């Protein structure tokens, strides 16, 4: 088993600690938290070993799981990589794209693996249809959340929208050509609601909306491609595939048939792929262990995490145009 330590024991850090402690692929060595009071409380309640010095924890493990606030990501990740330890780091990868590029270069230099915590890649509904999303040309995503003070230190783009940016980048095999966006600050110092139109070189357009001041939660995406429409409900963990094929010469009286102005007939087929329940956070952590043990490429690489951040920063920059 790989020895692992967690940096950061806030809300998400505690979840990581619990899952790593349960995992059969890791041996949880301990954790570090900047708040000694919080560290004492967690250690007393759950029995996890607390470290008072970050470097001591890094030295004691094979893998470091970074779940600290974004502003500290670069500093602790750099210490981890230069110590020759593998790195799992929560999203966004760093505060700036330049920092992300430096981490990528360091990881290559020191021969360590890294994975970014874009957990929606492991959402069972998205996993059920990801292989069926082929050359989408229009994507629409809505990620709406009720207000929660946690996370308001960063714009809603880095808090919420970046999940959909990463999901979109994982299925659109083309470079981003143009970004237009608008954002509004309602209750925070940074935008709480934002809309972005991302255009790709192959003609695909993604229209993303994110809000953290909504009356109800919603996490839905729709992918439109030639002869198919695919919907994913990340919150309810449901998905649907609607396909259109040339209608057969002998039509079933119950079949759904569409006919265009030129007389071409298409039959509509509905498909609800099986969604296998999972714990997405545990899956992302354990697939990283597999990548280390088998010397394979992690599912969400540092490079992919950096590209999601670059596009997210492009959205934020577009606010001031």
UniProtKB/TrEMBL annotation:
Gene3D superfamilies registered for this protein in UniProt: Dihydrodipicolinate Reductase, domain 2 (3.30.360.10), NAD(P)-binding Rossmann-like Domain (3.40.50.720)
Pfam families registered for this protein in UniProt: GFO_IDH_MocA (PF01408), GFO_IDH_MocA_C3 (PF22725)
InterPro entries linked to this entry: Gfo/Idh/MocA-like_OxRdtase_N, Gfo/Idh/MocA_Oxidoreductases, GFO_IDH_MocA-like_dom, NAD(P)-bd_dom_sf
Domain GFO/IDH/MocA-like oxidoreductase residue range list: 154-216
Gfo/Idh/MocA-like oxidoreductase N-terminal domain sequence ranges: 2-118
Any one Gene Ontology molecular-function term assigned to this protein's record: nucleotide binding
UniProt-recorded name of the protein: Oxidoreductase
